[in-house]
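Budget justification note: compute hours in this period were largely spent on complex prediction jobs such as the one shown. Inputs:
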Amino acid sequence: MDLFKYTAHELHEKLVNKEITAVELVNSVYARIDEVEEQANAYISMSKEEALAQAEKVDAKIAAGEAIAPLAGIPVVFKDNINIAGQVTSCASKMLDGVSAIFDAHATENLRKEDAVFLGKANMAEFSIGNTTDNSFFGAAHNPWNLDCVTGGCATAAAVAAGEAIWALASDTSGDLRQPAAYAGCVGIKPTYGRVSRLGLAAYASSMDQIGAVTKDVTDAATVLNAICGKDDRDSTSWAVETPDFTQALVADVKGLRIGVPKEYFGENVDAKIKAEVEKAIEQYKELGAEIVEVSLPHTQYAVRTFYVIANGEAGANFARYDGVRYGYRNMEAQSASDMTARSRNEGFGEEVKLRLLFGTHVLSKGYYENYYVRAMKVRTLIRNDFEEAFKQCDVLLTPTTPVLAEAYNTEMDAFAKYELDFTTVTANLAGLPAITVPCGMVDGMPVGMQLIGKVLDEATILKAAYTFEQATDFHKAMAPLGGNK
Amino acid sequence: MTKYTTVIGLEVHAELKTESKAFCTCSAEFTNVPNTHVCPGCLGLPGTLPVLNKQVVEFAIRAGLAVNCEIQKYNKFDRKSYFYPDLCTNYQISQLDKPICLAGHIDINVDGEEKRIGVTRIHMEQDAGKLVHSGATISTSDFSAVDYNRAGVALIEIVSEPDMRSAEEARAYMENLKAILEYTDVCDCKMQEGSLRCDANVSIMPEGATEFGTRVEIKNLNSFRALVRAIEYEVERQKEVLAEGGRLIQETRTWDDANGVTLSMRNKETAEDYRYFPDADLVPVIIDDAWIERVRAELPELPAQRQARLMEQHGLPKYDASIIVSTKAMAEYFDEAVKTAKDAKGVSNWLLGDVSAYLNNEGITISEFKVTPAHLAELVNLTKDGVLSSKLAKKVFTEMLKEDKAPGALVKELGLEQVSDEGAIMKLVEETIAENPQSVADFKAGKDRAIGFLVGQIMKKSKGKANPGMVQKMLKEKMQ
Amino acid sequence: MKVTAQDVKYIAQLSRLIVPEADLEKSTEEFNQILNYADILQKIDTTGIEPTPYVLPISNALRKDVAKEGVTHEEALLNAPEVYNDGFKVPRVIE
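Corresponding output:
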């Protein structure tokens, strides 16, 4: 039985009904990994022994007649910037290759409580910098829909789509969870900033980083949020708000829901074929009883630049700790501490990361701070204000998740044009809003994702809207060629 | 030759007496075993996050109120970036533009002259770790080892206005500040151990000028003496540079205590670009009036108030009172002693005299002084009651330093009670008169000096125990 | 706001990164392209707009002053590239 093809909630049923065991399940996924990983390169490291031990524990509980959590026994892959104690967190960088985490992320702790089964760590853009995995120290990952195409900023969704994991725990700073999910035909949700503790997530841009889930359907997304959200006293930015039961939002009903369609997300910079698919989805919503409202988010055009200044400034400080002193890569020839640090960083970081760090230093330095960093923080306010205005007219916003399809690796693209590809997703990070991507079509054999952005803390509405669409369509059931046909 | 005015401002770092560090739950206690009071945050591991210790805010408010600052309601934290191996994230969490305290002052008194020194600001921040060098000094070591036990310990930085005009004023400011921090119990103020650290900004300008000269920052001032010597040296150095037609550069210098000089620290061109920006890992701290007023209500008696009290309640001279209150321990010792002492000034005389001399000699503080306040009070009372002469009291004091015994008991043990018995003294007087007819004759002939000799003889006979006043009186009466 | 090769060297030094002399010209050009990209933000009218350093509307995330055990000494040094006397060994600190 190809158990790797099922969703988490389907597998949960099977486990509870004793149709399968957790050990069988994890073995099925590892067998699948053995089969396709060479082509996909979605993994950086694996922890089969720990995974089997976790699975055995779940089987023992089931055998003992104990109730199990919804994610118990379900194999999950982690983006390799989220800590699992005792395993390496590499951030796909030479800098952290071999560096063992000595503590669990808060999300990891929560998943341990759920008895989830940890498969290993997924490939990613080095330190999440860049929207492809080109710069991973472990080589680029490949899209299971077309191996010549990129996976996006991490390989979590590629792993899920290829059957190498049932779901994935990932982070989203600029859309690097939602964009790969869209490229792989998966569901990806980034909750409101502050919903999930960032403890144990290697920081990129502290004011925007947020942990979320990549899943096969909306039900799984809601299930994962139930497990990972909640106040953590060890993260000052963990928001002390009640965590609702997100599965309560899984109701197929959008009657009267006001869906805002921001015109800035349907401009010339968006692939016409993608627009066509998303517009079909809008029609579908109309048929399902939603009210479509045209809205405007006028500062969208500045979003990536704003992000670029703030994120790189924050990264400049966050990555300063990678100095070769306490852990990580060290140049052993240097004769002085400062030279050791400079050479270690020079050799440990990839080119794109270094370029970003230089820029990040510059925007914070004397004489430039006001003009770059402070100004970007002000434009960030304008972008937030845009959302505030728009949400006066609607309950959720609907946009394409990405302006292009997962492009081929050999695509020649100007660096800045590549940065700008994030414009659809990065706004939710700048404003701290929840956003979900769900598959809404296929173009040239590649999946298309649409994004629903919600009000602060209103994951329920985007989950409900996404679920309603999912129930009315079959896009989420499509399997990637490398994933086999269901 | 041009006359110059010295301009000094001090930046003081005080380690707060919290149980745990500023932004993590590691113990803030000092330990000698490297890297034992550390957590993933102290090691700057990826995925670690700061959470502010409430007591840090509490202490900062307390210190701020004690130096008459206005407490700022909106507080935020910034990252100050610079690379150094003892700084685990290579940025320090500090406060740039929204410090917790602004616009305070400390009053000082130098040679009887009162002066008010402005406190510009106080902000909260975290300490760095420590480097242990393989060789004798940093520059002669091929390598060093980093210990992060101290990394993250809570600090407040107290920045003064450039209001001081001499090393003595700087010393007085620093002494007063130290006393205030001790009284408020926010810092243990051990300068030698680095829990209280001082940097001095020193410049000179021609007398009468309004624009300050080029400022030099001096680091590594870990005693009052070092502070005074370093400033005095630096002022002379700056005068010499200008006298030779040279130009002063704004730089950081370090005080070399052994050689008594300030030395330029390698003037790194990048050293001053700290790239401050808001730390998004932390959220603002809003301090409401209720919080401020509660801390204000709980403020202990401060040195200035205590000094006034000692003068009023115990009739101490200002000089005595100011010295006694300069350290909290001394003031507490005094207060304890005067509970049973019949003579407050007597206690003060001991504390300022023999006790201080002993402490200085031993290189200890009054907290480590073995003689209890009650025993010192008893000693004072024995003198006051005429049981001991001041000379014998000193003898008893010396014994008290050796063994933990009540002075009354020691007096008995050593047989040192002053003899005030009229009959016993009369016997000595008569004996002495009989033995020294010439002196008696001299006295009768009007040579007053002769009585001194006779008193001396009697004291000698009594082994110093006879009450000198009575001896004098009775001798005179007898010879009349 | 263009920068010079000298500026790039300074920035690299501040960042503890190395831009080899041979690449300096190219790096400066690349850097100026990025600045050119970011400079578009200068055109936006931000008069009267407050900056957003944080998106959360929360404050006073404070904890009680209670000390807890950290990690063990062994865990602390687990990933250390070099150890000396229970500390993290680094080459000489002053050049």
